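Aim 2 progress update. The chain analyzed this quarter is reproduced below.
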Amino acid sequence: MAKKQNELQFGQVPLPQALKQYSLSKLNWSGLNRRQVIDTGALSMECNISTAEAPYLTPSQSRADILSDMGLKYKHPISLFSFDDFLVVIYRDDTELKLDYLVLSDKKNSKGQITKVYTGLIKKGVTEETDAIQRSMVQFNVYENAVDVLGGTYVKKLILFPDKVSMFMKIVDTDKDPTTFDKQAVEDGNADIDVMYCQKESSGKKTYYVWNGAIGRFTLTGGVNYFKTSNLDVEIKKYYNDGYTQTKDEYYNDGYRKSSKQTYNDGYKKTEYKVFRDGYVPIEDTNETTYDGGDVYYYERQGEYSPYTYTVATWLQQGDKLKGKGLYQREPAPLGTNTNVTFYERTGTSFPYTYVKVRNLKTGDNISSYYEKVSDSTGTVQTKLYVRKADDNGTIIPYEYEEVTDIAYGTNITDYYEKISDKEVTAKAYYKRTENTDKDSDDKYKYELIKNLENGKKVSKYYEFTENYAPPEGSNKSCYWLNTYDNQTYQFCSDIGDGKSGFGITVSPSFPNLKYAVVHLSRLFGVDEDRVHVSGYNDYTNWNLDTVAESNESNAWSSASQTNTKAGGNFTGITVYDNHVVCFKRDFMHEIYNSKNPFRLVDVYAEGSIDNRSIQEVNGKLIFASDDEIKVYTGSQPREIGYNLGIDEFKSAVSGSDGRNYYLYCTDRQGEMYLFVYDTMVGQWSQQVINSEVLGFAHNKNGMYMLCKDGVVYKMDTNKYTDDWSCETDLSTILTSSSSSTYQTVNIKHIAKFQMLAYIEGRFKVYALYDNEEFNPETSQLLYDSNGRKGMQAIRLKPRMTANYGYKLHFEGHGYVRFYEMELGITPGGELFVSSR
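Predicted structure tokens:
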């Protein structure tokens, strides 16, 4: 038989040490403290408890699966993001990486429920290894006018990292065929080129369309029931173009050909005579003045043009005056030798020349510049003649021609050219590609200029120098093209000048391999393993850095982390806080300063984050998970707020925020899963049940959401209370009264009375646990069961007599309950009942 000492029998009352009764009131339910579980006034255990109505105690809202009504469940979920009125779920479907664009309802009765689902293909050929890669998705607004961002319009894009793909943020349903929306429809406002259109047929089949600026129409993207995201890490294809292209001309033709005549003949030649002499001279040029009636004859000229005819003036009478009557006198022998020639004067300086007869020639006139008609025909040369221009280095190529303005009769014109076409014919130079290449390269050819080309010569094997180094016609317009001749990169542009589209020179795309990214100051800020990268202003595809020769405040920027030895390791996250970009490593923080290039990376504190998903700005505070704590940063040294969680080392941490609360899913070193909520308004933690790994939280105007490893997206703020809940107070050894200070004691205490004010819609029970007792619904002392009572209830009861050093209360229930205040009457004294076993 075991020996019993100071043993009480059931029903006996211990001898009190004092008769005074103390009261303990609980007006504030003080949140969760899992680390200190004695005399803190906090709750030491919670299951689905909320601080939403603090200082009162209420259960957390029940979660709802928003996928089941749409028949969705993800076998390999990865990430969750939220924007405006929709969610984006990243997941793996066998060997394809996809996203679902889930449009949410904003109607009162169905708020936050899925109304539409659009599916996009990110990439093919992925394996299960991609499931473990964290994703980062951001919204980037590309302003049409980067100078006037307030008054201008912009295009909203979503960008996913590290996959480096983008898509239009807005998807619009249409029952029309988007390929019929042309430029006019866009200009008239009947179509929007800054969205993706989804055409849904009566059969349920969906097809997606985006604007193709190259052809001015919408074109299909993706396939049946899915769209394709745009790859930012654009493929660069190589080609060779040295500016020479094989001509499409079969024969040479510049509009001129060699003259078909041997000599020049237009029917007139320059006279060989110098002076006009036809054997007659005007009386005015002689000394004769009066007709004397002798044997000398005087003549009258007939006609205006040579050769002239002369007749004797028989009408003269002796004594008549000779001068002034147009009379001529025969020239003394010898007579002139050109009496039978008609002389012409050339008018104009270009072909076809015109000739006019020379009037009223007289003996002695200079006729060396006049022409004689060589035949009765109009001549054998009927066109203008040209010669090829030349400079000091020889003939100008491509050939240029100038008209010959003065050609003598009989001139050899075999080297002259005739114009054979009045139409505009492009003058070209043709080249022959030689067999030899440049010394320094095997793919750069030499060319030899082809000289003395004549009309009709075959040139199909020759090359033209076009000065166009762009990709060949028909090249893929969605790719970048690298010309190996000059190492220039080309990209297709809808406008390369004068409203024309084509390939233009651009900078070779070097989109960095960002792990995580944020948008700030109309730039993309991101981190890879050990560098920080900032895109160009208003252009997430621009990563052009300053050079020695050129710098621009709109350029991109990049920097390695500081050389501080404490700042070693890889980047683990990035966020925007207090108008600065903050970059995290596992045990260090950096901030980026300046509002334009060049930026400055500054070491801040030797505090870091273990996971980008743990970083949230909540109610003006930046909260993140480090290796051993949850910390809050407000501009000064980060302080700890996670001590009460009782976790000494965080193995993983994923968070979200609704603007007031910091939701934290985490695991400890043993892999135990927890879901905590930190209320920044009251500074208290609460805890909810979690049975599956959380991959991400998301919040938008429709509510708070959570994606779990079980493939379900849960809505967390349903305003419904259908779950079981429970909590426990800490172990209390405190005595208190209005006339004495609070103090702790290991004296035996009795719960003399229990009073509580509560509002009840569901059901709850209260149990008393004593000393080290663990809750057991079968053996723990039940103090109260609401059992159908509803509404505001004042609960008063006297537990059976107890004798213990400390006690705690265990609450559990189902549905909505609100605890306002609680009062315990404590009587100290007596001896502890001890039984020997």
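Helices lie at 183-187. The longest helix spans residues 183-187. These observations will guide the mutagenesis experiments scheduled for the next reporting period.
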